[in-house]
Structure formats: structure tokens, C-alpha cells
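thread: overnight batch results

M.L. [08:02]
morning all. the overnight job finished for the chain we discussed friday. pasting input first so we're all looking at the same thing
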Amino acid sequence: MSLLDVCDMTVYYGPVRGVSDVSLSVDKGEIVALLGANGAGKSTVLKAISGLVKPRSGGLSFMGRDLGRVRPASRVRLGLVQVPEGRRIFPALTVAENLELAGFGFGGDRTGRRRRLQAVLERFPILVPHTRKLAGMLSGGEQQILAIARGMMAQPTLLMVDEPSLGLGPQMVESVYELLVQIAAEGTAVLLVEQNVTLAFEITNRAYVLQQGRLVLSGPSRELVDDQRVVAAYLGARPEPTE
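M.L. [08:03]
and the structure it wrote out:
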């Protein structure tokens, strides 16, 4: 049994189909990529897993538990955490306040929350000099790291990260990706949504490719890196059948 199992999931926004018959899995401690061009349905899949949109059909399970009737907040408490596209930090709060706010929903006393904050800051030392700085004053890359650190305050078993390289320079992208590799190495699985396929294939174990809301390709990243069907999916062409 995988950590996360998505089986034949279909999602609609009113009369408009978002994704159709999508199946994927994530195992403990691995990094899995969900790839595709703009509008392919990647963020829709993450929202459905998080409980922000309700699938019309199909199954979702996490650590063997059916998520069909589990509310979004309860999914987070189970260890299923999403870092949204665009970071969505609170710019008028300090870095420390952003992190502390993320820890309030998980019980424990003040001492326990402080220990959790200290543990996260030790994992993300780039944030330590900025704890009293307003989050809106950070660079784009620092804000992305803060968003990931905020997700880790929930002590997730699976961290879903939506477009972490968006708008960042190459050096900061490398830093963000190194953090994701470290997070996975320490036991937290990562489901990565990314448009930059070259970057994604460098750190992921497996990948799924969406095109127009449908899964068109999947397999080990090392086998897909030179697959022309990946390029076809990004350019909007129909992948050629394999023999």
C-alpha cells in the first residue's frame, strides 16, 4: 500500500471538466513529479487531494484511510500538507509570526510550539536572520522557503509543493530544490507540481504527465527524461503510441 493513492479521480468545476480518470501514487520518502503545461490540471489534482475541491468520482486514500469524508483541516492533521502556488505567505506578519501561526492548529502548549518553531528554523537556517522581519520584505526565493518552512510546521508525512521555481532565479531555485531533497531524505514524501521538467527530473524518483486533464504518461524519471512524449504533452501534441 502506498502512502497516497489516487484512483480514477475526475473533478469538475460546474460543467467544466478539470481532470478525468487520474490515478497516481506516492510512497513514503520519495519525490514524485506531476508535470504538464499550463491548464493541464496539475493544481486541480493537488486541490482535490487537499480537499479544497470535491471529486465527482474516483477514490482518494492516505496512509490507508479513505479521504472521501475527511475535511481539509483534518487532512492536514493527518499529515497531508500543501504549499500553494504563489507562496501565499502573510506579508504583514513577521517570518516568525508566519511560522507560529502555522503551528497553532496542531495542539500542544506554548512550549511545544516553540520547540517545533526552533526545529523548523534549524532545518531552514536561511530564515534565522529574518525572523523579526516582515515576510513581505523577503526576496521571492526567501518567501518560497518560508512557505515550505510554514508547511513543515505541520510535521507532514506528505508535502505537496505547487510550482516552487516560479519567478525565481537559478541560484535560488537550486537552493529550494536542495531543501526538497533534504526533506525527502529525512522521511517526508514530496509531491511536486512543476512546469520546468528538466528541474523536476533531476530530483524526482517518478513522474506523471498530464495533458488537458488526462494522465498521458508515467514512469521512473530517469526513463522519461529523454522521452519525446513529454515534449509532445507540453507542446499540446498528442503523444505517439509506443510499440
